[in-house]
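Intended use. Records like the one below are meant for learning the mapping from a protein sequence to its folded structure. Do not use them to infer anything beyond what is encoded.
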Amino acid sequence: MRKIALRFAAYLLAGSTLGGAAFVALQFDAPNSVGVLLLVLVTAGCGAIATIILLARTFPDHAGGLRTTHPVALTAMDAICVISSVVTCFLIFDGYAVWLVDHSPMIGEPLLSDVMAFMFLPSALILAGFITSSGSQSVSIDETGISVSGHSETIACSWQDVDSLKANEQYIVVSRVGIPVPKRLRVNLDIVLANGDEITIYEPGLRSAKKAVLKKLRAHAPERLDENLSELAQHWR
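Structure written out for the chain above:
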């Protein structure tokens, strides 16, 4: 939970400081005002540095094994979320320009800002949780069994405890011409244990990582799981 909170705080900080700095710069013509320009540069610089420090503290600890998310991919996801937060906060500030600085909005409008302000916090929290859980996972596979490490715990099981391996398609809801439709996000591997519990391995983002996990599974998993692995290979191409 600590890393989720830090990542969530980083997104909020980036949006409020960088988006706020952009709003002030455009509303008050910063290039022609030394005082405004200095305020914008200091705010944006401090916000950027603080955001980087917070995100650096969320980086996964080295737990060994195969990582399901490459560090470069994790950094790219954080960068996309930071940019989205900055744009969202800028549009929120701009929509409320009349109330904030007694200026007319440049782009946004109050109704749009109301919707974005309402959705921003829960969206940022969901993304922080998703990226932290996906980006922190590492998998160790050997002749004794499987060990899956996440941001908060490590779960291990022996091959004797494994009942089956199941490809589990994960979907999200997206809008198509105003109609909500499901879209496949990824295909995870669910390790079904004899006691009914399940351990989830998230689908790796890189093909090389998928091949590495499959290679380890084929090398060490019992023959009774070969059919499950063949089905998984069809999804993890």
